[in-house]
Structure formats: structure tokens, C-alpha cells
Design brief:
The longest helix has 14 residues. By secondary structure, the chain is of the alpha/beta class. It contains three helices and eight strands; from the N terminus they run E-H-E-E-H-E-H-E-E-E-E. A hairpin with an 8-residue loop joins strand 5 and strand 6. It starts with a strand and ends with a strand. It has a single domain, classed as Cytidine Deaminase, domain 2 (3-Layer(aba) Sandwich), CATH 3.40.140.10.
Length: about 140
Amino acid sequence: MEKLKLPRAIYDRLLEAAEQEAPREACGLLAGSGAAVREFYPLTNVEASAARFSMDPQEQFAALKCMRGRSWEIVGIWHSHPATPARMSAEDRKLAFMPGVSYVILSLAPACRGEIRAFRRERGGSFREQEIEFC
């Protein structure tokens, strides 16, 4: 499995977005090509929940339109865990149905603040961790 290539500057923006939304989960889309992230689109969590997220559909459409204009695709779906480690929760697994994208989670939990992990859905519905390469 190819490593997810994440620029440090985008990681910093993810962390900032997560901190601004805490104690609610923050969410957004990672765009680029292949496994290389080139842009982060922060989106509103319409659930305003500390344990779940749903992205605003109008914001998703606007982000996708912008991506198409740059010949990019969705590389990842990102969200934060304000109080738990960066792992796939049961809810995350249930809602992670889009093939070919990375599911990226950033934790703000005190013991692991800033931890970021990526996962890919495999055939049969299991998940495998994807290595992140900072660039």
C-alpha cells in the first residue's frame, strides 16, 4: 500500500482546525492526486458532536467543484477525535464506505495530542493502517 504523503503545512492546518472545533469533532476533505495530499478543505460538522461527524453537503459540493477545476480528487476523508486516540471507532468503520480513499484521524486526547493516523478499507470490509509520510 502506498504511503499517504502529507505536507507538514497541511498537518498544521488540520491540527489548528481540530483545536478550533474542540470539543466537537472537526472534519474535511484532503485533495490531491494518487496518495499525495495537496490541499485541505475544512468542512462544517453538521452534527456538532464530540463523537460523530457529518459533512455539510453544500460545502462538500463546493470543495469537489474546486478539486475538479484543479484536476484533483479526494485523497482522504479527515476528522478529529477530541478526547480519544486516533483509531477507527465502531462508528468510523460503519461510515467509511468510500473505496480508494484514506480515512485520516487526528487526536486531541491529552495522552496523544497531535497523533495522526490513516486507514484504508480493504476488500471484505476490514481496515488496514496506511503509513503517513510527512513532506
